[in-house]
Amino acid sequence: MKVKASRLISRGFTSTLIPDTLSIQDNKVIVEKKTWLGLKNQQKRVTKDQLASVRINNGFFYSTIYLETTGGATEDISVDGIPKRKAKKAVIAIEDMLES
After folding, report:
1. Residue 17, pLDDT score
2. Strand runs (DSSP E) across the chain, as ranges?
3. Mean pLDDT of 78-93
4. Stretch 1-29: mean pLDDT, rounded?
């Protein structure tokens, strides 16, 4: 499952052109954020064993998904501006992955 953030709610010019993505695969979650018009790419991969919990913060139209990792990371991984329905489906998919 792959979820893209909205282009309307963006954190900068690059996010308007190339939105952040959250990919849920069999045993891992990949968060990809691009900067500098797509020339720089920040990709965070979290395996099922490294993922402690998932949270969702719902706004009126859009949501933010937070991934908390084990091992004492200083901050949670977040993806904001995801349409509300897609965010709920993504959180359910991540919770199902954690339970299996």
Report:
1. 75
2. 2-4, 21-24, 28-35, 40-47, 51-58, 62-69, 77-83
3. 93
4. 80
